[in-house]
Amino acid sequence: MNVIPTTGLFWGILCLYVFLVLGAGLFFARNNKSTEDFFFGGRRFSWWLIGMSMLATGVGSHSFAKYAAKGFEYGFSSTMTYMNDWFFMPLLLFGWIPIIYYMKVNSIPEYFERRFNSTVRNLSTFTMLLYLIGYIGIGLLALANLLQPILGWEIQSIIIIVAIISGTYVSLGGQTAIIFTDFLQGVILLFAGLLIFGLGISYLGGFDLFWDSLSLTNKLPLADFNSPPDFNFVGIFWQDGVVGSVGFAFMNQAVIMRFLASRSVAHARRATMMNVLVFLPIGTLAVSNSGWIGRAIANAFPDVIAESTNPNGIFTIVGSLVANSEPIFAFLVASVVAALMSSLDSQINASAAVAVNDVYTPLAKNPSEKTKLRISMFTSAFVTFIGIQAAFIFSQYGTIYEAHGAFHAIVTPPMVTVIFFGIFWQRFSSRAAIMTFVLGSIFIILGEMYPYELITPFAHGTEYIADRPYSYIKALYNMVACSSIAIVVTFLSKKPIDYSKIKGLTLWTIRDGQEYFKGSKVNSNKGSEIRFSASLIEIDEKLEGKTVRLPEKYSNQLKGETGDIIYISDTRWYLGGLKSTHAILGKVSDSDKILISKEVHEHAQFDFNRKIFIELEG
């Protein structure tokens, strides 16, 4: 293959970026005092920081590879795969987010044990690890395809190298490193994605020439209803819009951990709305437009970009053409590395969280936090190694988009079905959940073995191709099979549900979850926040746990009661909650000082020359 020429300057800029990311991992490692810090960043971050880091997780290297590829092949209709998140937002905002946050759920499998039983937890643990490791494999494969036009190496060699870098960084830094570096990487990848669009328009000679170089089919916002077989509206809707998008938001442990890293349910909701309504539409343009530019160049100048060009690497090829200097090209490539890091770090960290919380901890006998933290770091490295093997398997598919689609369609449906019925149908039973996993998997395997016989009735007229049967519509068949099993077994179950055991775990019992979160009745008589100089803080060695005691005047202003949860933070908004923590309001202090426990100070690390605020959380 032809290799894009580069010099030492290019590699210097790229290596500098990688070392900065690794440095961030080392810097933020000092914040990891427990597994809650390593996995959830202390549950203290502001919505804008969470929202941008969620964007960086969703818009990963696989996004630049697969959506740019579809943009190159089919034009503007590539965006339809990225704009399907709006219709399930109310269910996410007012159902799933408050349930997992208030019930202090650390992982999806843990939710399943509390909602159903340990058998369902074990089944979901296996599925979740399969899902996350598959995502790691897709990310590694995507970056390898994007870098191959520059390096000219074998795909397998590139996969191994980037996996080592990513695994090292995440194993050191944990969730706090992920959130802050993902924020920076989110800004970088959006800017780079939009920059390549501007450079591409300039390369073509203006927007009018770009527009005129696209065919009418390239300009359509949606693909044809059921053709061609490798990219059609109905297949993409079921595979990407329903199974893929719903699975990503509801069962992806990496996204769940973002919600749980927020300082409150309100901040998690704001982050989600900002991400879906603002960041993702911009992200869609950023990840797809290099494909559109590539298509316009191929149509206008077929001697520059041939029709036979591998679409998986079109971002890199277009970037090398339109960048008018090597530093700019290096920056564009670095942004793809940023996208990889932003996706891989979250998936690796999430895999370790599931392995430690749902496999190691239940088997171990009261392991210490230090031991669990060490196991977490080791597991991060181990799942990265397994992700390399997954990437090798996915490389057998024709395109990254099809590999990702097939992966979603097979792995996601049982888990998504059990989550949805568990949240929204109180009668949904443990037996039905088990059968959904077991029988649902059997039907999925049968669909893979006999696609023409079983999937054709669901195919909406899409063409059957023997070597790649129903690339996307199989997601609909799998969802129907799993949902049917869930409904039938639930209605046949005779054992009554003990509703007292699922309080707070369904949409209809969210209020119970708020009381569970606090540990007592929620204080609805919220006063105004209080602000003061940190010099008024005094560390009281006698206070146990994360306790704060306020003078009477501050207590009256806050209208807090003993036992209420408060949020105490540095007032600098741009820190995003880095110097903050939740605490428990103790008895009114006789002192003029704000008394805090040693544990509160260790988590928040206040600067005593700054301003601090306290707000009542419940």
Question: What's the layout of helices and strands?
Answer:
Elements (H helix, E strand, L loop, with lengths): L7 H21 L6 H6 L6 H12 L2 H14 L14 H14 L5 H8 L2 H34 L3 H50 L2 H6 L20 H18 L2 H9 L3 H36 L13 H9 L3 H38 L5 H26 L5 H25 L5 H20 L1 H5 L18 H19 L17 H9 L11 E4 L3 E3 L7 E3 L2 H7 L6 E6 L9 E6 L8 E3 L1 H7 L6 E6 L2
Polypeptide structure, described:
The protein has helices at about 10-30, 35-40, 45-60, 60-75, 90-100, 110-115, 120-150, 155-205, 205-210, 235-250, 255-260, 265-300, 315-320, 325-365, 370-395, 400-425, 430-450, 450-455, 475-490, 510-520, 550-560, 600-605, and strands spanning about 530-535, 535-540, 545-550, 565-570, 580-585, 595, 610-615. It has about 625 residues and is mainly alpha-helical. A seven-stranded mixed sheet has the order 1-7-4-5-3-6-2. It is globular. The N and C termini lie far apart (about 60 Å).
Features:
7-stranded mixed β-sheet; 618 residues; mainly alpha
Q: Give average pLDDT, whole number.
A: 84
Number of strands: 7
Strand order of the largest sheet: 1-7-4-5-3-6-2
Radius of gyration: 25 Å
Largest sheet: 7 strands, mixed
User: Given the C-alpha coordinates, what overall shape results?
Assistant: globular
Oligomer: single chain
Residue stretches low in confidence (pLDDT < 50, at least 5 long) are none
Compact summary:
The chain is mostly helical. Helices cover 64% and strands 5% of the residues.
